[in-house]
Amino acid sequence: xxxxQRKKILDSLVQEFRRGSLVLAVLSQLGEYQYxxxxxxxxxxxxxxxxxxxxxxxxxxxxxxxxxESRWQLEEGRQRRYYRLSPEGRVLFRELKEAxxxxxRVMETLLKEGEINA
Amino acid sequence: xxxxxxxxxxxxARRIWVKGRKDILQELRGGLEDLLAERFGNRxxxxxxxxxxxxxxxxxxxVARRYNGDPGCLISSRVxxxxxxxxxxxxxxxxxxxxxxAVVGFVADPEVSGAMAVLRWLGTLFPGLLSAFGGVTLTFxxxxxxxxxxxxxxxxxxxxxxxxxxxxxxGEAVGPAGALAGLIFSLAGLGIFAFLSHLVSLGPGAGENLxxxxxxxxxxxxxxxxxxxxxxxxxxxxxxxxxxxxGSGWIPARLAxxxxxxxxxxxxxxxxxxxxxxxxxxxxxxxxxxxxxxLELAKVFRTMLRVGLxxxxxxxxxxILKRGYxxxxx
Lengths: 118, 330
Known about the structure:
A: three-stranded antiparallel sheet, 3 strands, B: elongated
């Protein structure tokens, strides 16, 4: 495997596990109402890149699952759809966060073992 | 909003089939407005700059696919536009072929009555359309799984937003499948009119069915004004060709549509005012052994024709007002 191939595989694997954490990342930012573009920009500034064409469908899906609630608001002459966690969504987010923290602890243990064995 | 962005949003809209399409588009529009404001401020970006932004946003098929999802669908959203177009062509061709075969069969076979001919036509049309639909769907379902890259076409590889067809006014966008079906039916109408006119010009036929068809069509206002009616189908075909070429929002296509509606309304008025919607005496003369029956039938046909033409005229007037209003608003 040459350098370019390794980089391509690495990028694809990193994208895969980032994709898996996108939902939790989005939910963590929606304690208060935000609209899609605003959310995409603020997550990008914090290091979690999320394309708008990935984020908008995700927000709709989460709303359909009643994890988020939304409302339309007219601002600066533009209709914007604002989202935030629904009451059920807040409960789910807490549980998801606990599951994530547990997974992170397990991963830390596994990676430490990996360091010892490598 | 720049016209190129409207074309992009219209292209996404045509590919979304989940509920809430209007909401989705409004949200996407807002997102694109924010993105453009952030990139260019108050400056109007050039077409090249807009194309770059839209390419970055993603091909309309890709954006629509993320909304549509693929929860066990037989045909995935990436090949759906091509599937829909092929299905429209095949089913249009099957309808045309079976209709022509039914008309020819009716005319050529003296044993078959009109009612039986219609029933036979319906009896072959439904299974024919079902088979055609099933065949195309199965073929695409297999190809989608075996060779999706061959079918992906539009979303794979580099693309230019400037190649997207023009956007029509909201709620009026006609996709390529609709335009192709419209073209096939316009040409079919033209063909059937020409065929029936040719039958009439053959002179009195020998068989009862042929004589009946010749007298029915030959004595009708459609045959008297046939050259006018050819124009109706020709303008319909022209409009659909223009829509296929550059999209339903393209001004020449919309003008052709408006011209077609105005012309059709004129022909309908001429037909209603022609005096003789259907010549009962001609029908009776063609089938003297059933003269009384033919005269009664002619009365019924005349009433049906009158009602049909009036309803069609009202529909055309509404269509003219709608098209004209939307053209002016643009």
